[in-house]
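The protein record filed here.
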Amino acid sequence: MDFKPINDLPESTYSQYACFDVLRLATVRGAELASFESSINVLTSTALTGLQRLPVRLRRRAASHRINRLPRRFHKHHHLANPNENGSKSGTFRIKNKLKSRRYRRRTLRLLALHARFITTNKHNNHLKKEKSFWLPTHIWHAKRFHMITKWGWRLPYAPTNKIFKACYKASHKKCNVIWTPLPTYLRTLVTPREVA
């Protein structure tokens, strides 16, 4: 269809368009417009809860259990629709005080225990110095890979935790093998080339 601007219309039709009154038409057709609006909002007009008033793209199944999943502007409607949720029987809702976490509740006990431990260690400081064992510079590396024992006041690696027999057998046939005995000869390392092994 080819629509022409009003200025291009003949004078007879132009005069009809010029006297067109929108307000008069709206009042005459008010009942039709009202039924049209109600048919558009048919989904939200019969809504009983705040969840049903939401647009479809914002609806969440878990929102009925977790109010935080609703948009903030619908929180009040949700509480008004579910008055017994927070224990209040009236339409007004009260927000529960958030319970402190278990860690926060036990904080005072933890601090008291730390203080008591600090006092007892300072009283018997000389006794603890005798029992304290020293670490090697490579302690963390060894602790991940070996069973550690305390010997001569030092934490020393005793036996490896991984089972490397198959890897040692392959290495002895292809390249060389390193034998390392932590105790009693901690600093002795023996390298056996393939010809010797």
User: Anything to note?
Assistant: The first helix runs from residue 11 to 18.
